[in-house]
Amino acid sequence: MRHAKKGRKLGTDASHTKAMRRSLVTALLKNNRIKTTETRAKEIRADVDRVITWAKAGDVHSRRLALGFIYDDDLVKKIFSEAERFEGRQGGYTRILKLGPRKGDAAPMVIMELID
Fold first, then answer.
1. Is residue 7 part of a domain?
2. pLDDT per residue over 54-71, tens digit each?
3. In 3-state terms, what secondary structure has residue 10?
4. pTM score over 0.85
5. Residue 4 DSSP SS3
6. How many whole angstroms from its chain centre is CA 93?
7. How many domains does the chain have?
8. Are residues 69 and 25 in contact, defined by beta-carbon separation less than 8 angstroms?
9. Looking at residue 63, which CATH number applies to its domain?
């Protein structure tokens, strides 16, 4: 039973889903834009918003939470130093642009990018 289990499974077990989400968030924050499936993009929106909100707070506790979630320590320093670019925004730091179906399996593909 899946009682009180939030989020989508994304076709894998729980540990692989968690690792995939962390990896996608790290890639998006590092490159400002990623190409992925629509389901995965919708699933990591909340994670990206949470990390950017931590960066906007800028305190030690938030930095340690981000270090525990993001794989790259240098990226955490970069995000926390550039957090002022999101100061005027209360949330919704990402944009999803639909591309159409993938050729091999017809999965809906999107480009997910950070909003400046």
1. no
2. 999 999 999 999 999 999
3. coil
4. yes
5. coil
6. 10
7. 1
8. yes
9. 3.90.1030.10
